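From the pipeline queue, job 12 of 40. The input is one protein chain; the requested action is below.

Action: predict structure.
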Amino acid sequence: MTAPALSHAPRWVRVCALEEIPEAGGRLCTVGAIEVGVFRTRHGAILALVNRCPHKGGPLSEGIVTDHVVVWPLHGWKVDLVTGEAVAPDAGCVTRFPVDVRGEDVYLDASTLPRERSPLCDVTGVHPDSGRPRLGRRRALPADFTRMDFDRALPVLSVEPPSPDTETTLALAITREERPLATLSVEELRARHPVVRAPAHLTCLMFGFCRAVTWTGVRLADVLDGFPSLPFVSFYSWESDATAERRRFFETLPIAYARDPRTLLAFQLDDQPLPKEHGGPLRLVVPFLQGYKSVKWLSAIKLCGEDELGYKRLHGFIDFPELEPPPNWRRSRSRESPK
């Protein structure tokens, strides 16, 4: 009787040294285009999973290992390192990989790696205002962006060049629909409202990076307290003629998201003046939503009676998942969710 044929021939690839994996922790390793979390339990077992939490896609390698389970701290989801299954009552699973420890090195069977997938954009057609083809059913590429640098400690990704404004020249315009209400400088924001420091993550699911950072700024809710309350708030980047779409970048939030205490107008990153490439001198920070909602080079805030939809939806992108919605939030019926 012959042995059954293997479904694949193992292709062992060295991913890291054993000493690089912390006890009761994980390490991010990249094999081809796939990010893999490699983990070590307190008993010395080495296990590997695709580095994406089944809940919101967060990096499992930043989690805490207890027994044979990794806990991703941002949401508290637990994933069994042996089976790849989420621990009940949560549901979902991630791909796990065979691992072989050879002396002081860790090898992974690369023949079991999944193909990259997950279309992120609309399927067909062109942008109505520019005539540029929509991205189609594929992941975004660096070529779709004006500025990108993934090699630095804090990656940079942008569809437009930085604003020429500085803290001394920026005049943040606040309007109700088209009616001007106020113009504020960065110094006036500091003087009028409590300055807060907020740990968060710089996250991009399109290109798969996530870095821990600390933002310093003022809560948007404090700024909005002095103005009429409308159902939506739009945030406009600077007036640039150099964008690919020849249109000013903007995004819109429901008022509950805008008033969430985690939503900031930030002017510092990691206790340093906000770098130009990361939105300086002033940017919106919405840490519980995808990065495209945190508008860089913020120059105007508009209080709106209706959802303006935002640049991404107007240009054919689907809505990205929230990282962590505000407490007790229920999505309002609007043009975003037609019935």
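Job complete. The chain has a mean pLDDT of 78.
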